[in-house]
Each structure stands twice: as C-alpha cells, then as structure tokens.
Amino acid sequence: MTAPQELTADPHQDGVDAAVTAARRVIESLLRAGSGSTAEMGRIADQLNSVADNLDEHAPAMNQRMVDMWAGEGTTRHDPVTGPENAIAPPLQLIGQSDGSVRGVLTLGLPYQGPPGHVHGGISALILDHTLGVANHWAGVSGMTAELTLRYHRPTPLFEPLTITGVQTGVDGRKIRTSGAVTAGGEVCVSAEGLFIAKHLPRPR
Ligand SMILES: CCCCC/C=C\C/C=C\C/C=C\C/C=C/CCCC(=O)SCCNC(=O)CCNC(=O)[C@H](O)C(C)(C)COP(=O)(O)OP(=O)(O)OC[C@H]1O[C@@H](n2cnc3c(N)ncnc32)[C@H](O)[C@@H]1OP(=O)(O)O
Fold first, then answer.
1. Burial of 51 (C-beta count, 10 Å sphere; 0-12/13-18/19+)
2. Distance 188 CA to ligand 1 centre (A)
3. Model ipTM?
C-alpha cells in the first residue's frame, strides 16, 4: 500500500509565494470593497500599476519563463488550481491517498461566486478537471482532457469547507476514465466524469 503523499507544491512563507498570497488578498478586498467603497480607488489603481511595472522590469523574457515553469519541481507551482505562484489559483492542495484517490479541502470566497452566495459552475469545472488530471498522475497513467461531464446536484456554498476528490476508474488503451466530486457537509454538490487521452504536449525548452 502506498503512503499518502502531497501532490501539489507547498506554498513558501516568503518569495513570490508570499507576494501571490498578498495579490489574492487584493483581489478579494477589491471585490469586497466594490463601487460604493470610500477608498481612493484612483490612487489604489496607481499603486497597483506601479507594483506591476516593478515586477515586469525584473521579469525574465517570456520564452525563458515558459522553460523555467516546466522545469524540475516547477511543474505544480504555476497552474490555476493548485499553483502557489498563481494568484488566480484558490489554491487547492491535493493529497494522494493510499486507496488510489486524491483529496483536498478548500474554502472559496467572493472571487469565485456564481449564483448568490454560491460557487460559479465554471470554477467547479476547473477545479474538477485539474483534480481528475492529478488523480491520473497519482494512478500512474495521465493524459489530456478529451471530455468532461459534470452534474450539478445542488448549489455549492461559498465560505464553507469543500472536499474535492478524484479517482481513476479505468484505462483502456489510450483512453483513461476518471471521476470526482465536490462535496460540502458530506453532500455531493458537483460530480464529474472525465475521458482523458494519454498524450502529453512537449515542454518548452
Ligand atoms: C497538464 C500536464 C501537467 C503535467 C505536470 C507533471 C507533473 C505534475 C504532477 C501533477 C499534475 C498532473 C496533472 C495536472 C492536470 C492537469 C489537468 C488539466 C488537463 C487539461 O486541461 S488538458 C487541456 C484541455 N484538453 C485539450 O486541450 C485536448 C485537446 N484535444 C486533443 O489534443 C486531442 O483531441 C486528443 C489528445 C484529446 C485526442 O487526439 P489524438 O490525436 O491524440 O487521439 P485520437 O483522436 O486518435 O483519439 C484516440 C482515441 O480517443 C478517442 N477520442 C478522442 N477524443 C475524444 C473525445 N473528445 N470524446 C470521445 N472519444 C475521443 C478517439 O475516438 C480514439 O478512440 P479509438 O482509438 O477507439 O478510435
């Protein structure tokens, strides 16, 4: 039996991860402030633009950055679901379980809202697509999403812990079948069935 294993990158307390954590807070705070806020939004926009100017001045060329992103341990640091370097990632941490499944718990806030007080369906789709991909990686045979079928059973709440699961259910030649779910308080909110095809695009170099 395989011991449980962290499959996503551990966020660092310093460096770019700390700045990304601050950026996530800015996104959330802007949405919370809204158009009725008494904060000086013109000045805030100038400050944020000067932060971005500073980052751009010190960034490598885009093609070099693409190479670096896909090198070594970097592969799970930048994706839009689990990446500690990606400010649009919630971020979700996934643990590979001894039974072959993967599991993670996260709470989503205002930036991910769809219906009032609930998670946008496309966000659930993004999270499940990625989780199924990681489940395939954990199972040892992975590929690209060819089909993703979602069933939205009940609205998925914001501000409450959500359990995200994925498990590979079968491999037939290049076809990989994987399923998963988002649950809240023990109830399934969204379930997913995916068909993945064993194929990998070349990494930039
Ligand atoms: C992303 C990888 C990261 C790797 C990092 C490494 C380590 C990090 C560790 C953990 C992280 C791991 C994973 C992260 C997870 C990421 C999840 C994100 C996944 C994605 O976000 S990924 C982007 C969205 N995805 C696409 O962008 C695909 C676009 N698409 C294509 O690239 C082609 O379309 C392809 C490749 C799908 C197939 O093309 P192909 O030429 O290779 O194969 P072909 O067409 O011959 O099909 C062979 C057999 O599959 C059947 N088949 C094909 N497609 C079907 C369909 N849609 N429905 C039903 N059956 C289908 C055929 O009917 C035939 O069946 P048969 O053999 O029986 O005739």
1. middle
2. 26
3. 0.91
* Domains of the chain, first to last: 90-197 (3.10.129.10)
Distance of CA 69 from the midpoint of ligand 1 (Å): 21
Distance, CA of 79 to CA of 82 (rounded, Å): 6
Tens of pLDDT, residues 97-119: 999 999 999 999 999 999 999 99
Q: Is the CB of 144 under 6 A from ligand 1?
A: yes
Quick check: pTM over 0.90?
Answer: yes
State both tokens at 170: 């079968």
Strand partners, 168: 178
Closest CA to 205 of 32, 3, 7, 68: 68
H/E stretch holding 66 reads helix 62-69
Bond preceding residue 91 cis, omega within 30 of 0? yes
Amino acid at 59: A
